[in-house]
Prior knowledge:
CATH superfamily of the largest domain: P-loop containing nucleotide triphosphate hydrolases
CATH topology of the largest domain: Rossmann fold
Distance between the termini: 70 Å
Oligomer: single chain
CATH architecture of the largest domain: 3-Layer(aba) Sandwich
Largest sheet: 8 strands, antiparallel
Amino acid sequence: MNAELIKDNILDYLKRHEEKELLRFIACGSVDDGKSTLIGRLLYETKMIFKDHLLALKAEKKYKRTDEEIDFSLLVDGLQAEREQGITIDVAYRYFSSEKRKFIIADTPGHEQYTRNMVTGASTSDLAVILIDARNGVLTQTKRHSFLICLLGIRNILVAVNKMDLVNYSEEVFKKIVKDYEMIFKQLKFSLPFKHFEPEVDFIPISALKGDNVVERSQNMPWYKGKVFLEYLNTVKVINTGLRRDIDFRFPVQYINRPNQEFRGYCGNVAGGLVKEGDNIIVYPSKMKTRIKSIVKPINPVDSKKDKKHSKLTRAYPPMAVTLLLEKDIDVSRGDLIAKEGEKQPKFNDSFEAMLVWMDEEPLKNREYIIKLYTKETTAIVSRILFKKDVNTWEKIEAKTLELNDIARVQIDLVEEVAFDLYEENKSTGSFILIDKLTNNTVAAGMIVGESTKRKKRRIYTESEIALNKFIREHYPEWGCKPIEELD
């Protein structure tokens, strides 16, 4: 059908392709569970591979890990180290499409040392595919991957039981894995920091290498009556909290548009809820109130110079990029958050508790970091580590600092009050990153899970004050100067 449409009317085909729904998903699992092979098979079956690429793969014998004509994993494992070791190291993004949807896949490494890579891939995904080797069943790595994807708020989970050809396509083996996974998943929900978290979990038996139940229904598993893998991807109803209209309205201001004296608009993406012309709003942090005068579509700078009339909308919802015009000329800046009056307001505080994923080679230090929360940037410090989480056993561990790939519940203090939501209520206004002021590296990513239990505000000391305190204690001990971390 697509081939005929391309031949007859290429413009119509391109328009239809542009309007297709986009689904982002992550593929994760233990080493050698077949993630890269499954993705390679999908790319091959959906005809997303060029002929010269296929010929090169058939000729590339020194990296092949199978007796088949094509080793589909080589389509995804692009790094030389990945091909030599037969593992995934970095996050690989691949694109393909069907007649119904467009897809972006994040192939993430299974090793524990690459946890930050997996978190990066899962942060933008709407669906998680967890692969389980039918020969090995549910492993410790399966528990770790399940915890991470649930912590990041992914509510659609597909457990693909792979390598069914190596267990003679046994229905009993498949049913046992389903039962084992459902048992650990019940325990997992109690270890999460969310009050309301009910994901949809589905199971499909497949063989990525042989193609069973990937695109076509397998003749080797007549006992399986559910959807095949690609059919599931085409029809799954995604539970994406970031695109919901039935939650409270949030609009982080990204840019102030002032092309002339008659126009002053506030640009950004709707991060939740629904807004209409004439709605009463509140702007944080000033808490000033006004009304929406009009909602304008994104403006092309070239067209705006020619025509001063702009296309208007009666309403806006996620993830639309719009410009809001207000009735009153109040002070609104980049980083401000606009909410609707009469709805649940965001939390407004200079401190909160969060689940923090440490992503830097250097450990956490008692210093100031730049925090970026939606479009807001300010200064913050990790004032307390409440506990560290063992991602394999889900147990709480005491910790004084955080190392690479550690995940912990912490208290973060800010230098000013900021509007925010809990992560489970709104991902856009409930997630943040920490940036090192000296190196400008992103050192951590976090999800806000609660308001601080410790209300006393801790002073944030500058780098020079910390250095001065250390100098005095080393060279003038007779002064009796206390360590700066004990002053609070």
